[in-house]
Amino acid sequence: MVAEETPVTLAYNGVSHAVMMASPVDLEDFAVGFSLTEGLISHADAVTAVTVVRYSRGIELQIETSAKVASDARRRRLSGRSGCGICGMADVEEVLRELPHVNSDTCFTVAAISRAVRELGAQQPLNDATGAVHAAGWANAAGAVSLVREDVGRHNALDKLVGAMARATIDARDGFVVLTSRGSFELVQKVAILGASLVATVSAPTGLAVQIAIDTGITLAGFARDGRVTVYAHPERVRA
Fold it and tell me: Residues 19, 84, 152, 212: which is the catalytic one?
């Protein structure tokens, strides 16, 4: 089996906003999560309906919202590749946008992070079949993973997770995010918008991701595998 990679158009109230290359699963979650992390809506209830329309050469998500969101200021000019979460942005201000600051006194153990990585690896049916997709998971403070979303794009997987959590009204302050990818800066941005205080990745973070994590109050953990973890930002939340 091989992983599908499909053009997915996101259209708001009849106006096309972006075309992203994504795995054609959990698309309702993707619609809500993308809308939230792009700053197009402030809460999930603003999306009143999502219709998935499949064409021969792609998919359109017809998103109905209670307010106009697809303004020229935020509309993507280019298609978003599966490996890039910022394709189509027109200027630096759109890429390095102002983010909320995460405030949380919740602490996590290395054992909980390690458990989450193990459980995430066991809940990836699409990757088990193809070996070609990323996953984003939500774990409680003890490291038990209760929600996983997969996609060929690491940023899409996280958007799907954000959307699934928002639709299920899961409080982001009660746990942390675990990712199968490296810690790129756009993932930290999305976690800041979600409001989670810790994100753990199985690979290394980038320098910009570390700086954004420091600035937004997020604990950023990398190389979370084989029972170890390296903490790059706000280590006070991680206990041995």
Answer: 84
